[in-house]
Amino acid sequence: MKKLLLSMFAVSALSAGLFISSAAQAAEVNVYSGREENLIKPLLDRFTAATGITVNLITAGADELTTRLELEGANSPADLLLTVDVGRLLRAKELGLLQAVDSDVLESQIPAQYRDSEGQWFGVSLRARVVVYDKERVDPAQLSTYEDLVDPKWRGQICVRSSSNIYNQSMTAAMISHHGVETTEQWARGLVANFARDPQGGDRDQIAAVAIGQCQLAIVNTYYLAGMMNATNEEQREQASKVAVFWPNQDDRGAHINISGVGLTAHAPNRTEAVQLLEYLVSDEAQTWYAETNNEFPVRQGVPVSATLQAWGEFKADDLALEQLGTHNAESVRLMDRAGWR
Amino acid sequence: MGKHVSLLAVIVLCLLLSVPVLTVFSSVFNSSDGVWQHLVDTLLWSYIFQSLQLMLGVGFMVLVLGVVPAWLVTMTRFPGSRWLEWALVLPLAMPAYIIAYTYTGMLDVAGPVQGFIRDTFDLRFGDYWFPQIRSTGGAITMLSLVLYPYVYLLSRMAFLEQSVCVLEVSRTLGSSPWHAFTRVAVPLARPAIIAGLALVLMETLADYGTVQYFGISTFTAGIFRTWFGMGSATAAAQLSAVLMLFILVLVIAEQWSRNRARYHHTSTRYSHLPRLRLTSWKMAGALMYCLLPVLLGFLIPVLQLAWWAWDTRALVDFSAFSQLVFNSLRLAFTAALIALMLGMLITYAKRLQPGLPMRTTTRVLGLGYAVPGTVIAVGVLIPFAWLDNSLDAWMRAQFGIATGLLMSGTLIAVVFAYIVRFLPVAMNTVDAGLGKIKPSMDDAGRSMGLGSWQILRLIHIPMLKGSLLTAALLVFVDVLKELPATLILRPFNFNTLAIRTYELANQERLTEAAASALMIVIAGIIPVIIISLSISASRPGHDKRT
Fold first, then answer.
1. Per-residue pLDDT tens for A173-193?
2. In A5-30, which positions are buried (b, 16+ CB within 10 angstroms) versus exposed (e)?
3. Phi, psi angle pair for B163, to nearest 5°
C-alpha cells in the first residue's frame, strides 16, 4: 500500500513538473508550421535577434495543424499558419481559419499571383516542379511540356512519387485550372502508362532512379536536386551530377510553381507581432536566406539566388494566380485515383 | 454496496479513457459528401486487400520468428542460448519506420548494395534481379522484424510458467519433444501467443509511417489520403471506425473460438525445467534460427545507423540533443507508470466483476491500440478543446475571466493520448498474467479474511511482478517510439527524439536522421533487456543462483 501511494505521489510530482506552463511573455508570436523545424527555426531566430520578439513554434503536417487550429477555435494560441504548399492555405481560408492582413509591404513585395486577393495568405518562397533528365541518354531537344510527357516515346521511362504527395496534387490541380478535368484525367492516364515503376519514395529517390538508369525522366521539385548537389554524402552528389533540369512549357504558360506561404489566423492573439514576422519573411535578409539555405526561389524579384540556382538559368514561371487552384485539390486526388496513379 | 461503487468508478474511468475512440466512432453519423461512393468506385477494395495481405503476412512471420525461438531458448541449451534469451527482444527498441528507412537506404536501387553489384559486375539497372524493398513483401518483412518480440515475449513467459508436470506427462505418454511442443505447450500457451499476436496485428493495422514510405495503399494509408487529399476529416474518421469494427470482430471471434476453455495452471509444483541437450547439428540449427531475427531486426540496422551517425556527427548540436533525450524519457516514464496503474486497476476490476459492463468497456478501451496515432490525436483534440472552450465561455459569462485553453496543447493531452493508445498493451500483458492465477487462490485469501484490496496486494502483485514490469516497460518503449500523436498534440517548442528523426527523414536526409534514430534505439535497449531478464527470473521456483 505504502509503495503504491509512494509511486502515485511520484507520478503526481512528476506530472506537476511536466505540466506547469511557462508564464506569458511580453512580446511573442506563436507559429504553427508545416515546414520542419530545422528548415525554419534559424530564420525565426534571426527575427528574434532583430526584434526581441520571441517566436514559439510547433511543427507538424499542415493538415494536422489545420485540424488542430480548427478544433481549438477562438481560443487557439496560434498567430500564424505556415505551410509549404498553396493547397493547405486555400483550405484554411475556406474553413474560415484566416483573416485579412492589410500591409503595403506585403502587397508591394509579393507579386499578385502568389498571394490571396483578399490578403488572407501570402507566398514567401517559390518552389518549381520541373522535369529532370538523364544527361547521357536523353536529348533535351526531345522535351517540351508537361503535356508531352504522355507521348508514347516515354513509355516506361518516367519516375514520379505517389499522388498522395501534395506537390503532385497541386501540379494536377493547376493542370485542371488550365485544361479542365476531362483533359487532365486523360493526361494523368497517359502519364501512368509511361511510369517506369509504381510510385514510391520521395523526390530525391526519383532523381537517384534517373541517375542509376531506372528511368530517363523524373518530375521533381528543384530544391531537392539542389540539396543533393550540395549534400555531405558523396554518393548523392554523384547521382545529382548525372541529371539536368529541364524547364517545361517555356514556349507557352511556363513551369508549374507552388509556394510556401503564411496566413494570419482568424483569432490571432498577437496580431501586431505576427504581421511584423510576416513582413520580415519577405525582407531582403529572409528572402536571401530562403534562396541560400533551402535552395528555393525568392518570391521577390531581384533578390540574388545561390550559385546552384543561378546555374539553371532564367526560366518562365506559370503566371496562373494560385488562388485559382481553389477547390481543385480534392478533384485532383479523385482524378488521380481514377487514373490509377497510386 | 462499496463494491458496486468502486466498480462504477472503474467503469466511469474506462469510459473517460474511451472518449477518443468513441469520438472517432461517432463520426459514422456525419455526412461525408460522396467521398464513400468515390472510394467504393475506386480504391476501397484495394485498401482492404492490401491490409489483409499485410496482416496475414506479418501474422504468419511473427509466429515463426516469435514462438519457435521462445520454445528453443526456454527448453533447450545450445551455445549462445542464454545470450539469445534477451537478445531476441532487442528489435522491440527499433521503431518500424526507422528500420524501413534504414533498409531502404541500404537495399534500394540507388543504395550501396545494388551500387556495389553494378560496379563489381559492370551491370546496368535491369540487367540483374534484386528483391524490391519497397513492396508489400518488404513491408511485411520490416514490420515482422520489429514486432515479433511481442509474440516472443508473451509466449516465452507462458512457456516459463508452464508446469513441467504437464510436459512430463506428455513425454511419458510417448510424445516426442516436437510433439510436446506442438500438442501441449503451444495449445497451453495459446492465450499468451494470441495476446502477442493481437498486439502485433493491431500495430500493423495502425502503421502509417512504413506503408506510406513504401507506397503501399493499406486501409490506414487510405484514411490519411482521404483526410489530407480530399480534406474530408469525416470520411477519414469513418474509415477509422470501420477499421476498429474489424478489430472488434477479430477479438470477439478469437474469444468465442476459445469457447469455455480455461488456462489456469493445475499444479503449483514447479521444478527446474529439464533443458534438452541437443546434438551438434540441431544445436547449429537452433542457433541459426534464433540468431537470424536478432541479426536482421537489430544488429544490421543498428550498425548501419551508427555508420551514418558517425558520418554526420559534425551536424549534431549536443545541448539540443540532450534536451530531446530528456523530453522523450520523461514522457515515456510518466506514461508507463500511469498505464501500469490503470492497467492493473482495470484488469483486476474485470477479474472481480467479469460481467457484461466490464467486458464491454475494456473491449472498447482495447481498440485504442489499433487506431492510427493521428486519428487518436484528433479523438483527443476534439473533447479537450470542447472542454477548454466550454469552461472558458462559462468563466467569461460568470466571472468575466478568460481561461483560454487550459489542457489542449499541454503535455496532459499528449500523455492522455499515449494512455488511450498504449493502455491496451499494459492491459493485455497484465491480463495474460492474471489469467494464469487460479481463482482458488483468491478464494483461499478470502477464506482467510482478506479483502479484495489485500488479495491484490499480498497475493496477486507478488505473483505478477514479471507481468507488471513487462507491461510498464512495453509502454515505455512504445512511447519512446511514438510519433504522430506527439507531433500534433505537443506544446510549443517541445521536441522529442522521434520527432527529430521523422522530420529529417521526411526531408529525405536519412544520414542526418541517424543520430536521433540511434538514440531512440539505445534508450529503448535498457528497458528491453530488463524486461527480458525479469521474465527469466519470473518462473516460480526459479533459483536466482542458476
1. 999 999 999 999 999 999 999
2. eeeeeebeeebeebbeeeeeeeebbb
3. -70, 135
Distance CA A34, CA B487 (A): 11
Q: How many whole angstroms separate alpha carbon A125 and alpha carbon A305?
A: 12
Answer whether A14 sits within 8 Å of B385, measured CB to CB. no
Q: Was domain A128-255+323-339 assigned CATH 1.20.120.430? A: no
Beta bridge partners of A59: A33
What is the residue-wise DSSP string for A94-143? HTT-EE----HHHHHHS-GGGB-TTSSEEEEEEEEEEEEEETTT--GGG-
* Rounded CA separation B520/B498 (Å): 7
The superfamily (CATH) of domain A27-126+257-313 is: Periplasmic binding protein-like II (3.40.190.10)
pTM over 0.80: yes
CA distance B424 to B422: 5
Instruction: Give how far B406 is from chain A: nearest CA, Å.
Output: 9
CB contacts, 8 Å: B494 with chain A: 58
Q: Which chain B residues are Cβ-neighbours of A208 within 8 angstroms?
A: 108-110
Residues of A with Cβ-Cβ distance to B333 under 8 angstroms:
14
- Bridge partners for A99 per DSSP: A264
Nearest Cα to Cα of residue A170 among A83, A100, A110:
A83
pLDDT single digits (tens) B484-515: 899 889 999 999 999 999 888 887 788 888 99
Chain-chain contact of A19 with B495 (C-beta, under 8 angstroms): no
Domain ranges of chain B: 2-260+288-536
Put simply, the answer to whether B411 touches A337 (Cβ < 8 Å) is no
Chain B nearest-CA distance from A285, in A, is 24
A212 to B109: CB separation less than 8 angstroms, yes or no: yes
Residues with Cβ within 8 Å of residue B139, at least 6 apart in sequence = B54, B100, B210, B211, B214, B216
Nearest to B229 among A208, A212, A333 (CB): A333
Q: Which CATH superfamily is domain B2-260+288-536 in?
A: MetI-like (1.10.3720.10)
* pLDDT digits 0-9 by tens, A190-221: 999 999 998 888 899 999 999 988 999 999 99
**CA-closest candidate to residue B215, choices A196, A198, A217:** A198
Residue with the three cell numbers 505418454: B173
Locate A173 and state its grid cell: 490541380
